[in-house]
Automatic annotation (TrEMBL):
Coiled coil: none
Top-level class of the enzyme under EC nomenclature: ligase
Protein name, entry field: Phosphoribosylamine--glycine ligase
PANTHER family in UniProt: PHOSPHORIBOSYLAMINE--GLYCINE LIGASE, PHOSPHORIBOSYLAMINE--GLYCINE LIGASE, CHLOROPLASTIC
Record domain ATP-grasp: where: 108-307
Involved pathway(s): Purine metabolism; IMP biosynthesis via de novo pathway; N(1)-(5-phospho-D-ribosyl)glycinamide from 5-phospho-alpha-D-ribose 1-diphosphate: step 2/2
Family: Belongs to the GARS family.
GO molecular function (one): ATP binding
Matches recorded under Pfam families: GARS_A (PF01071), GARS_C (PF02843), GARS_N (PF02844)
Cofactor(s) recorded in Swiss-Prot or TrEMBL: Mg(2+); Mn(2+)
Reactions mediated catalytically: 5-phospho-beta-D-ribosylamine + glycine + ATP = N(1)-(5-phospho-beta-D-ribosyl)glycinamide + ADP + phosphate + H(+)
Origin: domain of life: Bacteria
The keyword Ligase appears for this protein: yes
Amino acid sequence: MKILVLGPGAREHAIVLALLAEQADHEIVCAPGNAGVAASGVETPELAYTDPEAVAAFVRERGFDLVVVGPEASLVAGVADPLRAAGVPVFGPDRAAAQLEGSKAFAKRVMDDAGVPTGRAVRVASFAEAGPVLDEFGAPYVVKADGLAAGKGVLVTEDRGAALDHVATWAPHGDVLIEEFLDGQEVSLFFFADGHDVLPLSPAQDYKRIFDGDAGPNTGGMGAYSPLPWVAEDFVEEITRTVALPTVRRLEADGTPFVGLLYCGLIVTSKGVRVIEFNARFGDPETQVVLARLESPLSRYLLASANGALAAQPVPKFSDDPAVIVVVASEGYPGEVVTGREVTGLDAAAAVPGVHVVHAATDRDEHGGWIATGGRVLGVVARGADFAEARSRAYDAVESIGLDGGQHRTDIAARVA
């Protein structure tokens, strides 16, 4: 199969590696990809991956059998729309359905209509409106930018002033939601969706804060692990029945069928499971650990989703071996990032048993060495017979990597190892 994976990051690298692991006769192109994807032996042509017309022209020229849209920015920009209109199988929702991630207010309306359990939320459009709503909810305050914010639009704080400042920062860019605080363990659960049916993947937990002990500001994600030994045995079945299927069926009834990856961001509270947010694509870094454990061929489910044929597919199978990812970030992340620094030790890291490295923001210098080009630079993914082994392997590999000023959390998966 001739497959185009759209996007430049670690998520796309993980998808490419899962497709390569099938050892099938696939022709895989990742556009624009990154230097790590290129080092995996995959073509990485330059492409304006958030431009629907540019992507459609590229697909027409190259004749792909399947297009997998990775980033949320591409989906919200409507990259899938002209492709689907031209009859190209696309894994990724069209622009209307992608508002499930692109607008938190839209997602709340869908959840309310579908009877999906979630926290109460009030939309505010200005700083002036926010104060009384914050006082009504009380601390801790939860403030969310309505649109895409690269994982940085959510603030949870005891500080009312900080909550108001967050409203002031994001309100000029669109509405802001103030939400009920939900206390509990967070879970990421992905579903393949074909517009009518869904099939679950394996749950994961990610670490959003920059520092150990969940301290500091939110990031795009500093690590993750899968599976989750502490969730109930029927957890996946419950979420399928109460969250994923009602959401997809509601969108179908509204004339905006959701085709692609439905990411359910959940929290397990004392009163039951609640949805924190939806995303319309694979999450990063959870994708890296979930796909590392996937034993079924990924391409089968991507194509079946795109073609409305999930009902004929078996539930995906996963290895019992746990997987852990530790993200290595540049100095200054998630604030003002220092880039251009040399990254060393990647071969030594990949030589640790059960380990592979996914690239998020790297490039080659004129001598063929690696340099960091962004905030989250790479992720070290490790599998093991148990969590202790997977975690030990991941951190052994991280210790092999050199990045001046680099940072990583030291407590990823500590609670299950």
